[in-house]
Amino acid sequence: MATETTTTYPERRFPLLGLPRLVPGLALTATLTALAVWAGDVPWIAGLGLGALTLAILFGIVIGNTLYPWLQPSCHAGVQLAKQRLLRLGIILYGFRLTFQQIADVGATGILIDALTLSSTFLLACWLGKKVFGIDSQTAMLIGAGSSICGAAAVMATEPVLKAESSKVAVAVSTVVVFGTLAIFAYPWLYHLNLQYQWLPFSQETFGIYTGSTIHEVAQVVAAGHAIGPDAENAAVIAKMIRVMMLAPFLLLLSGYISRSSGAGKAEKSAITIPWFAVLFIAVAGFNSFNLLPAALVQQLITADTWMLAMAMAALGLTTHISAVRQAGVKPILLATLLFIWLIVGGGVINQAVQHLF
Q1: Nearest alpha-carbon partner for 346 in 150, 154, 214, 230
Q2: What is the pLDDT of residues 107-164, one digit of tens each?
C-alpha cells in the first residue's frame, strides 16, 4: 500500500531560536507561491478560474514528486510549519474578505439557499461516500466540504479538524479543480440556454445567486458570473461570500460531531474540540464589518492571506505522492461527479423553491 512518505522526521515545536531550520522549507513554499500568484494573473489562466491556491498545490505536487525527495531533509521543518501554522493563520485572516453587511445584500433568501445547498451537499457526500462507494469517511467529508462550501480553502480548513492525510486532501482539492473549472463553462451555457427556451424564471440576478450558491471556488464563481453579465456577477459573488462565512459554523459543528463520535463507547464523555481558528475567523469578519481599518490596509491583509494559504497549499502538494493519490482510484471522482450533478440540479431546485416561497 502506498503511503505519503517512508522517511520519518522528528516532530518538534518551532521556537524562534530554531528559525534557521525553517528557512529552506519556507523559502521553497514561498517560491512556489510566487509562481502560483504570477500564473494566476495570466489572463487565460485566470479565465479558467485557476487561482493562486489551486495552482500552488499543483506546482507543489509536481516538485514534491520530482525534486523534493532530495530537498526534504533540509526543507521538512519549514514545509510542516507552512502546512499547519500558516494554514490556520490564513483561515483566520480570510475573515477580512467578508463583512456581515454583505448578508443583507441578498437577504434571508440567499442565506437560506446557501444553508440548504451546503447541508444537503455535505450530507449527500457523506452518505454516498459510505453507502454507495465505500470511501473512507475522511475523504468523503473533505470532498463534501470542498463541493459544498468554498472549494480548496474549505478542504484545507477541514483537514486539521479531521486530522486527514495529505493524500486525501489532495484528492479532494483535485475534484474542486476539475468540476469547478467545468462549471465555469457549463453555467453560462445553461443561462443562455434557459434564456432562449424559458424553462425556469431565472433573471440575471437570481441566476447569479444560483451560481454563487453552487459553484466550488470563489475564483470560479467570479469567472462564471462575469461570463453571464454584471448583475449575475455581483449577485454570485455576494452569495458565494455568504457560503464562505458558513465555513466557521460548519467547522464548529463538524468538530463537535467528530469529538462525540470518537468518544462513543467510552465511559467518560469526550470533550468537544473547538477549532479556535474558526472562531477567530468569525471574529475577524465581524471586526471587518465595522470598517475600522483603512481599505488599503485591508487589501494588504487580504494579499498576505492569499500568500499564507497558497504557501500552505504548496506545502500540502510537496508532501503528497502521486502514488497515494492514484491509490484512491475512481471512486472519489465518481462521488465528486454525483455531487456536481446535484449542485446543478438539486441546487437549481433549492434556488427556485426558496425564491418562490419568499
Answers
A1: 214
A2: 788 899 999 999 999 999 999 999 999 999 999 999 999 999 988 889 988 988 898 8
Closest CA to 161 of 183, 179, 144: 144
Contact criterion met (CB below 8 Å) for 33 and 58: no
Q: Residue 64 burial (CB < 10 Å; 0-12/13-18/19+)? A: buried
CB neighbour class for 268 (10 Å; exposed up to 12, middle 13-18, buried from 19): exposed
Task: Give the up-direction half-sphere exposure of residue 271: CA atoms within 13 A in the CB hemisphere.
Answer: 3
- In sequence order, the 6+-apart residues with CB closer than 8 A to the CB of 108 are 358
**CA distance linking residue 208 with residue 225, whole number of Å:** 6
Q: Helices 295-318 and 52-64 sit at what angle, rounded to 10 degrees?
A: 30
| Whether the Cβ atoms of residue 46 and residue 30 lie closer than 8 Å to each other | no
Whole-angstrom Cα distance, residue 303 to residue 281?
16
Q: Are 221 and 215 in contact (CB under 8 A)?
A: yes
Question: What is the CA 1 to chain-centroid distance, rounded?
Answer: 28
Query: 255 near 273, Cβ under 8 Å?
Result: yes
Residue given cell 450558491 in the structure block? 213
Which residue do the cell numbers 416561497 mark? 357
Q: How many CB atoms lie within 10 A of CB 161?
A: 22
pLDDT tens readout for residues 172-211: 988 888 898 889 889 999 999 999 999 999 999 999 999 9
- Calculate the dihedral angle through the C-alpha atoms of 114, 242, 282, 162, rounding to the nearest 10 degrees: 50
- DSSP class of residue 129? I
Which helix H or strand E contains 115, and what residues bound it? helix 101-127
Query: CA-CA distance, 66 to 61, in Å (whole number)?
Result: 9
What DSSP assignment string belongs to 279-303? HHHHHHHHHHTTT-S-HHHHHHHHH
Average pLDDT for 258-286: 68
Task: Identify the DSSP state of 17.
Answer: G
